[in-house]
Amino acid sequence: MPDGVFLVRFGSIEGRDASMNAGPMLFDRKPLIVRKRKPRINLREEKISTVPVWVRLPGSDLKFWGKSTLMKIGGLVGVPLKLDIATANKELIEYARVLIEVEINGSFMEHIEFLDENGGNVKQEVIFVWKPVTCSMCKGMGHTVDICPNKRVWKQTYVPTAQKVWRPVQPSSKQADVYGNSSILDQ
Ligand SMILES: [Zn+2]
Asked: pTM of the prediction?
C-alpha cells in the first residue's frame, strides 16, 4: 500500500456512500478523501488527481434556483456531485453549497458566467470552502511548503544542494568560472 492510502471496509453501502459524499474531511490538518476501490487497480500506480470540495455560490437569488440549475452551474466549476441538505431544502439563503469534484492542480475560478433563462449574462461569485493545496517540496496534499511536516526530511536530503545554490557569489567568481582560471583576475 503506498504512503497515505488506506484500505477501509465499510459495514454498509449506505455508510460508504455517506463518507464518499461528505467531501474532504480534515484529519490532523490533512484532507481525508474517501474513494471507491476499483477492482484490479494497482493502488501504487493510481494517482489522485481530483478531489471533491464544497463550493459556495453566494447570492440571494440562489434560493429560487432548483437542483438541476445549481448542478449545471456547478458543472462550470468542475464535476458537480451533490447539493448540501440546507441548499437542497432551500433553508440557506445567503449562498448555495455544491460539492464539486475539481482537478487538484487545476485553476480555482473566482467567478463564472452564464446566461439566465431570459438570455441575460449572470456573473456568479465562486468561493471554495477549502482548496486542495499541494506542497511543492514533498508533493503532499493539504499544506504548503512553509508548513511542510516533512521539512526535516527534505532539509537533510537537500541542504547540500541548497547551500551550493544560495552561497553568496564573490564578485570575481563569475569571471573566474568563465575563464576557468581565477589567477587572470589578480593580474
Ligand atoms: Zn510538504
From this structure: 0.61
